[in-house]
Design brief:
182 residues, single chain, 5 strands, mainly alpha, three-stranded antiparallel sheet
Length: 182
Amino acid sequence: MIRVNVKDATSLLQAIQKSISDQELATWMKTKADPYMRGVFTEQFQSEGSRLGTPWLGILESSLEKRGQKKYRKSKLGTGRLGGAKIFEGRVKGVNILQDTGELFNKVTKKPGLIEKYYSGLKITWGKDLGSWNKVDKYTIHQTGAGNNPPRKMIGATDRDAKHLMLSLWGYIGGKVRAYRK
């Protein structure tokens, strides 16, 4: 049989509320959640989309030719491309997709999440300030897809990521409650 004492539960909730301030939660967001998620975004670029479950379509051969990247030019034998790139159904993989200049990669992986006061507490958001709702920009084009550009999701999280963050926050709050109750 399991018994739940409402008095104990209420006491625990009060201890949590008194032991964790918005400032302390913001500290956890800055020191734990943000670095973890920016690491996820970096892995997403390195894996060309596989990290979040949907590998990015390769770059069209014609697009690669327009860029004039010598590193990935067609081999003289006509059997493929140099630099380890692979061709499949007219698309080239293994060419560091979305990383030509490093601008988009740096915006997504280096910029800290935005911590905001919300009606019920705090929230942290990544990518909110990268796109624009009233104009077309590089981030939105690639994140959601537009025209001939297929979607290449750069920002996202898996269930495993959510579980990792919840356990991290749980541990952080537990430490604060234990310190408060002493």
